């Protein structure tokens, strides 16, 4: 069979091909190098950085971020941004206890919430497609509306709109807690779920009409239209996935924290976009991928853990991570390519 | 003013590589004030790269570039030195007016360098001269036809009164009469002492206008010839490698065809827009039909209708299939019925700039190689890719390199390969040879002929008449949104087509072609 290099992540062995592979997968190489650098630096300066305990917590937090940023990556590949993600996460997080209190079996409640997330995402996709150019504020508006609705619903029988509590089922806690176990192994199942989803998604993006269509649309809408790639359908599907993944993240975060809090999604507004950008996916659409975002999520989480190790408070972490974005964007800036295209 | 014959631009040992592709190898070049100097070569010979290096867009890997005594490091410095470039791509701001597009980048941060009234007067005169009719300078550029956009970028450069003007395939979107007007403007500029560099593969054009020509092949200068030696034969012989060089032949071997065949596409009482006259059109399997016309006469809209991209006002075309006659009313129908489309506007509706060469070609075949779950069956795609690449002799590095690593002409070949990869029954080409060199054109004609002889139908739009001769079975000439004349057999010659394009029945009155505008 003929070896078929595809997309931007083709790899064909080693040796002489290395330089070419570097050129084609620059962001992957930069991401991996950065990750190694941070881990080595952490190991040398922070005691206990390489402990199993710390590695597990990094992987767990990166998994939450990675799951939330999955949809963000796909939307970015189309050239958009989904700012509704943190609100959907928060809404799912408070809705689940409420539904369980209302007597719904946990599994059914989770399925219902993920479906609601998908529906919100599809609505978001439809609206932001129709109002392109205003897509950013559209997704923010949808997020606000969803969260508002969730808060109204949860506060029906409670004085505390922002929080909701219910006994969280053991299996959900095990799924997402530090000391969670996968088939007896000391790895939280969320991490495994993330890994499986990552492999699946990368394969899907590379080998399906849907995946290739997302890249094609992000690269050139008109050229994609000539190939009968439906922009509306792709746009709605991608936002639907994003909404569903955000809802799932909110559900898993309940297992992690044990109590519903509407503000739990807030950090993900910045961090999902940051993971996408640090990974090297272009916000202009058409180039990058989820593999890159996985690296971005890991880099961001390791960095945070490092800063915590240095004793920085939340404000300090925020300042440093904010500043990190500048050199990262500079590294990925595609000035030479843009010049060559003139 | 630069004294006549002074050397204004000099390249010494200039080399440039893009990844594995060596675009230029130690190129030496110079041009003088008051000359029209042509830089000729096939696609991928490095001529566009050379233009970009002279304009400061690209920096050479090695070597030295001297422009009017300066060594610009970027386009702004080159511009300040007195150089203006008209790039191959039509670079306009769609949402701004013509006037703003003409004077973009000419103002200081605060305040104008030249009064608005001055500008309007100067620009209106120049645009009228180019377009051949008064032009509304306030019009938004996005809604204008491609030829007008091309005039805007040309006028933008000329309004700067450059000492050196570089034209990189800049007349590609102009029709014949317009090209003549452009040549007049070039002559005025030369007589005023400017250096004009014309980068092109359109040889016929050069023969009329160039004082000297430098020929590139595979990134190297293979020769420099003076005016008396600039002939089509000489240029062709130097541009193409010896093994590829064949005499320019107008003969095409045709297989005999059996009797009457029912048309594969037929349209009766088709109206392109509500108020325009209706006409009919048909094409049989095995036919190549040329479509042409002056700018804005509806031929472009017509091929889009045939490709299922645009809808006519009335009278949908119909396609004959083994299952019966079906209406070609949308892109889905076009794909189902086996109608493929190639656009000459590769930047806008062709390439996916972030994707690999392989992806850009194979994406055309994905929809035919899908499992029921939408999974692409890749097993046959690699072979298909190799087949198309060798069919059109596309010069590529690795298939996984980005499409933007290829020259414009090779990108176009990939897009034609994409259409062939769909295994179509009818192929609609909208000015595909724009930015494609002669060798490639000949390969393309031969492949299309072969395709037709095997029962395919070809609809081929071009603004270059000479493309049809010895190639098309019939040429439909559009005037005023309808087919003005349909030429075939012994009526199919350059003069007849030209006459028809200008709405005349016979050719006697049209005689401006190649009327020595260079003198």
Question: Can you tell me about this structure?
Answer:
The complex is a heterodimer of chains A (342) and B (519). Chain A is mainly α and 342 residues long. Chain A has a domain at 51-265. Chain A has 15 helices and two strands. Chain A has a two-stranded antiparallel ribbon with strand order 1-2. In chain A, helix 4 (85-101) runs parallel beside helix 6 (135-154), helix 5 packs antiparallel against helix 6 (135-154) and helix 9 (209-219) packs across helix 11. The two termini of chain A are 38 Å apart. By secondary structure, chain B is α/β, with parallel strands linked by helices. Chain B has helices at residues 47-54, 75-81, 98-102, 116-131, 146-158, 176-191, 203-209, 232-239, 299-306, 331-336, 346-349, 357-366, 381-391, 408-420, 438-453, 494-501; strands spanning 7-18, 21-32, 36-40, 62-67, 83-86, 164-168, 195-200, 212-217, 220-226, 265-270, 279-283, 288-293, 318-321, 324-327, 339-343, 426-430, 457-461, 474-479, 482-488. In chain B, the strands form four sheets. In chain B, strands 5-6-7-3-8-9 form a six-stranded mixed β-sheet, sandwiched between helices. Chain B has a six-stranded mixed β-sheet with strand order 15-16-17-12-18-19, with helices on both faces. Chain B has a four-stranded antiparallel β-sheet with strand order 11-10-13-14, with no helix packed on it. Chain B is globular, with a radius of gyration of 24 Å. The A-B interface holds A 1-8, 10, 12, 20, 23-24, 207-210, 212, 215-216, 218-220, 222-228, 282, 286-287, 337, 339-342 and B 18-20, 52, 57-58, 87, 89, 91, 309, 331-332, 335, 341, 343, 348-356, 358-359, 363-364, 366-367, 370, 373-376, 378-379, 381-383, 385-386, 398-402, 404.
